[in-house]
Design brief:
Layout: E1 2-3, E2 6-7, H1 15-18, H2 31-59, H3 65-70, H4 79-85, H5 88-122, H6 126-141, H7 144-154, H8 161-168, H9 184-196, H10 198-209, H11 213-221, H12 226-237, H13 239-254, H14 258-263, H15 275-285, H16 289-323
Antiparallel strand pairs: 1-2
Helix pairs in contact: 2-16, 4-16, 5-9, 5-10, 5-13, 7-9, 10-13, 13-16, 15-16
Length: 324
């Protein structure tokens, strides 16, 4: 039976559909899902899983450059981890890492959050917001090694622009030695803050732009002050976004190597070394592959534990807020 020239039978199809070679369709080829899933899995195996297994293997062996070339390794149990723990250099680098994370990563999130909220609330024109946002994000686009070299030149004690600005403005009467044992890590931290504050700024700005405006309109109708709107509405609703920005920045700052290598090379007198930089030196410069693998595993375990505890705390807080 045909209705308006169209067959109503469930098993009858137009001629063009019957003659179509379905095996050539991309969506019905069995190789499409295999390639879409298989290729990423192969890449993951090549650049993540295999190197991780290789690292764990050599962390329990006395692997050096010579043993790598001869393919001979001696099983040493936990000697590489013991060498990490008893190394005073590693202990001092952990102290440096705590200082860097507290005054670097935490301050970046605080400054990025403040700048994002100011940019959204104070600037009324969209074109001005976009222009300022682009200017603030420019440091993020620079390679870290280039940023380190730029700040190394600006902080040069004798002819650096930072000292010249401080002297002209009257903040100091003599030139500051920025790369002494007491200031070298602070100098690297300042360079890192300058570059990476824009990352949490972008995340928090996107979160603030996604908040519903009806809540703020209701708050204005109720006569809420700007401070109450900030502390009672904006910050509580952005708590998850700020936490995500902190986790991302913490994970990136934890493996901090490039600027230290360019600006201070861990010195002077190992005053600006971080654990990852020591692992890099032991593995790449000294070719102590087994000990470097021990450093890497210890750094990974500590980072995983800290992030897990932070996520559990955040989940607990969010659950309590949902109940309340």
């Amino acid at each position: 039976m045909a209705v308006n020239g169209i067959h109503s039978g469930a098993s009858e199809y137009p001629e063009w559909f019957k003659n179509k070679k379905r095996e050539r369709l991309l969506i019905v080829s069995r190789w499409v899902p295999l390639s879409l899933i298989g290729l990423p899995v192969l890449v993951l195996l090549a650049i993540v899983i295999y190197p991780t297994i290789w690292m764990f293997f050599h962390a329990f062996h006395d692997t050096t450059l010579l043993s790598l070339t001869r393919d001979r390794y001696n099983f040493v149990w936990f000697d590489n981890f013991y060498n990490v723990f008893v190394n005073d250099r590693f202990v001092s680098s952990v102290v440096n890492l705590v200082q860097y994370l507290f005054f670097g990563a935490v301050l970046e999130v605080i400054l990025g959050t403040a700048l994002a909220l100011m940019l959204f609330s104070v600037v009324r024109w969209n074109w001005a917001r976009t222009l300022l946002l682009i200017c603030m994000v420019v440091p993020l686009m620079l390679p870290p090694a280039m940023t380190g070299l730029m700040w190394l030149l600006m902080l040069t004690p004798h002819n650096g622009i930072i000292n010249e600005i401080l002297i002209v403005t009257g903040l100091t009467t003599e030139k500051v030695e920025w790369f002494t044992t007491s200031l070298s890590l602070w100098s690297v931290t300042f360079a890192d803050i300058w570059q990476w504050t824009s990352l949490p700024l972008l995340i928090v700005y996107a979160g603030r732009a996604s908040l519903p405006q009806s809540i703020y309109e209701a708050a204005r109708v109720d006569g809420a002050s700007r401070w109450k709107v900030l502390t009672r509405i904006t910050l509580p609703m952005l708590k998850e976004v700020i936490a995500i920005a902190f986790i991302i920045r913490f994970m990136d700052a934890y493996k901090y190597v490039d600027k230290i290598y360019v600006m201070t090379s861990g010195g002077p007198a190992e005053s600006s070394e971080l654990p990852v930089y020591i692992a890099y030196q032991r593995g790449i410069r000294d070719f102590q592959v087994g000990e470097a693998a021990g450093y890497a595993i210890m750094i990974f375990v500590v980072a995983a534990v800290l992030i897990t505890l932070f996520l559990k705390y955040l989940k607990k807080v969010l659950k309590a807020q949902a109940i309340a």
